[in-house]
Specification:
With about 260 residues, the chain is an alpha/beta fold. It has eleven helices and ten strands. Strands 1-2-3-5-7-10 form a six-stranded mixed sheet, sandwiched between helices. A four-stranded mixed sheet has the order 4-6-8-9. The chain is globular, with a radius of gyration of 19 Å. The chain starts with 5 loop residues before the first strand and ends in a 10-residue tail after the last helix. The mean pLDDT is about 95. It binds ligand T3D. The site of ligand T3D has 23 residues, from helix 2, helix 3 and strand 6.
Length: about 260
């Protein structure tokens, strides 16, 4: 598939997907969704062990391309936004969460609407200091989607989540870091360098173990303690069967650096 709305690159075990409609702040279109779906499927066989998302130009992603909706509404009948969420956005979010490798969002500029929550769905979010996050939905009569109503209260607490969702005010990268919404705000000039360093580090880590960590953390949102403890035991059983666990312990005992194969 030839990509028009995204770029896909792989450097060693780090795959990078760049949302690439800079003149429209990389807002989502049907075409971009199709390309993202294709690129995500490619990751299963290409040898990548870490995925980075970023945006081209001055923005990260401004959410749904509202001009696609204007076209639909011109005909009279309202668009079925539940259908577009169910068929495009929700599968994208779930595929990110299910991806068996760490996902980093390198938020290079404004992240609004679905673009903000798409970023927050990553496992680790780095943001340029000039970037901002906007729950823009309320300004056009919509509800935060792409998991916004799930992630925000868990990340920042319900008072802040409600304020963000109902006021739609931009929140700076530094404030987002202070509130625990993202991992780190970094200087604009070093965002991609820091992202690459982190991505290479994660790509050299025990990938299977990281995938199990991700599974455990994601499941904990809805589990009771006893269910979560059972899950930890089940996942630890799997982790204990990996070559990386064997290598990690052996390297520790031999007082050398471990070399993980990701299995
Ligand atoms: O519909 C469904 O399927 C349901 C799902 C909904 C998910 C959603 O994401 S709903 C929320 C959609 N997003 C927004 O409401 C955000 C709209 N954008 C903005 O509010 C502003 O653009 C920003 C605050 C993000 C940035 O402002 P600024 O001043 O830095 O840039 P700008 O001048 O507004 O935007 C630059 C260009 O991008 C401009 O195009 P132009 O005039 O130069 O040709 C602007 O129209 C375009 N653009 C930005 N966001 C969108 C967009 N075009 C279409 N859709 C957009 N979302």
């Amino acid at each position: 598939m030839d990509y028009k709305s995204i770029l896909f690159a792989q450097d060693r075990a780090v795959a990078t997907i760049t949302l690439n409609r800079p003149e429209k702040l990389n807002c989502f279109t049907r075409e971009m969704h199709a390309e993202l779906k294709h690129a995500m499927a490619r990751l299963k066989t290409g040898g990548a062990r870490c995925l980075v998302f970023t945006g081209a130009g001055r923005g990260f992603c401004a959410g749904q391309d509202l001009s696609e909706r204007a076209t639909t509404m011109a005909g009279g009948a309202p668009p079925d936004l539940g259908l577009t969420l169910g068929t495009l956005y929700n599968p994208l979010l779930l595929s990110l969460k299910a991806l068996e490798m760490p996902v980093i969002a390198a938020v290079n500029g404004v992240a609004a609407g679905a673009g903000a929550n798409f970023a927050l769905a990553a496992d680790i979010v780095l943001a340029a200091r000039s970037a901002s996050f906007i729950q823009a939905f309320c300004k056009i009569g919509l509800v935060p989607d792409c998991g916004g109503t799930f992630f925000l209260p868990r990340l920042v607490g319900s008072a802040r989540a409600m304020g963000l969702a109902m006021l739609g005010e931009p929140i700076s990268a530094e404030r987002a870091e202070q509130w625990g919404m993202i991992w780190k705000a970094v200087d604009d000039a070093t965002l991609m360098e820091e992202t690459q360093t982190l991505a290479l580090r994660l790509a050299a880590a025990p990938t299977r173990g990281l995938a199990l960590i991700k599974q455990a953390m994601n499941a904990s949102q809805g589990n009771t303690l006893d269910v979560q403890l059972s899950l930890e035991a089940a996942l630890q059983r799997q982790a204990g069967h990996t070559g990386d666990y064997r290598e990690g312990v052996t390297a520790f005992l031999q007082k050398r650096a471990a070399s993980f194969a990701g299995r």
